[in-house]
């Protein structure tokens, strides 16, 4: 199965060199298309915020018709020297507020409230901002609070969105020159496995040709990353077999009749089609985000391209469901409802400095965003970034059936770098938190035991320790 083929090279080369030329012409004429404000108090949080928070917009593209919204949380340790991390949430179309409040950011919602009052916020004890300054950006346009000023600007393709992320970062650093010398990383999860290596490659190439400001790129971090839009899903069946979800006989029949291609089955291949239907029946009652959890609806950002378009309101916003099962009481899906009621509150929007009239109802994962995917895999960018010596941390929740760890391990292995720290467990508070392996290209891979899609949401404490060790150049 030729899953590691390089795609879109000519398209990317043309598009990116055009961007480089335009950027060289613009240079410091970028000054400065950002509108930011410090946030000292947030409705629902008791007292002043004990960390430095800034929100704002950065206008991108020629006429700044795309306004990208961001949340910036300064490191609670040593912001002058600590790494600066740009975070992009997946989807595409899922707001970075998902990471800010449910995964790696400084705040969490308090336990689920059903009395209709404004949701309460508490500090996240596992925030990655304890040792790094983090910028959470709503990307692409139409995601979260990012908006377009014209109908033409409301649509983007992935290469364009990646170029906008690069432009965002340059403009933000011009407006925040005190961070120019900080080590810079770009991070995210799920569908961001496509965009982040692309953005990192654009930044690297821009640095090499002298685009200003120079961005002190050191590497990137990816959790449960999509790498092949039409290939990652093929590992769900081997994963299901390895986890004991389907029988040996069915798995052997699937291998024989489908020849490794399970996502786009030839309708004329009746035996393969029947096997895939039998497989689908076996897993129909499972929560694919984390196979040990009860099925209570959609719980995390997942790549829409792998699973087709949703057909109903509940499919578009399934966290708004009200499951009757007692097992689902307090489930993370129910917890997602808090973000809707909080971010649609007028006092909250005023505190966050949201431009009035720019966005109607806030949507956590806007799968109706006008976005076209043309990058079918990011493997080519991992190859190029590895050759340039950038560090990377790739991690997988080992109970994620959406982007199974088997597929991630396969493409990492195909890079064919020598192993410098062989497969072993990594330990948190005396317990096995997962398994890890490091390579000579500066790449560290880790599984997160019990983690789902995405791992940082399901295992926040373990993932915070993992990130802290890696960002500090310590072994996991």
How would you sum up this structure, described in words?
There is one protein chain. With 476 residues, the protein is of the alpha/beta class. It has two domains: 9-229 and 374-471, Rossmann fold (3-Layer(aba) Sandwich); 232-356, no CATH class. 32% of the residues lie in helices and 19% in strands. The chain has helices spanning 9-26, 97-102, 158-175, 192-208, 236-242, 248-258, 270-283, 304-307, 313-316, 332-335, 337-343, 346-352, 379-387, 405-414, 455-458, 460-471; strands spanning 34-39, 53-60, 66-73, 84-88, 107-109, 121-123, 133-137, 147-148, 156-157, 184-189, 217-223, 371-372, 391-397, 419-428, 431-439, 443-448. Helix 3 crosses helix 4 (192-208).
CATH class of the largest domain: Alpha Beta
Intertermini distance: 33 Å
Structure summary, number of beta strands: 16
Helix content: 25-40%
Low-pLDDT windows of residues:
1-31, 304-317
Count of domain modules: 2
Radius of gyration: 22 Å
Structural shape: globular
Number of helices: 16
User: Any idea what the CATH superfamily of the largest domain is called?
Assistant: Alpha/Beta hydrolase fold, catalytic domain
Which architecture name of the largest domain does CATH use?
3-Layer(aba) Sandwich
The CATH topology of the largest domain: Rossmann fold
Proportion of beta-strand residues: 15-25%
Outline the biggest β-sheet: 12 strands, mixed
> What is the structural class?
alpha/beta
Output mean pLDDT: 88
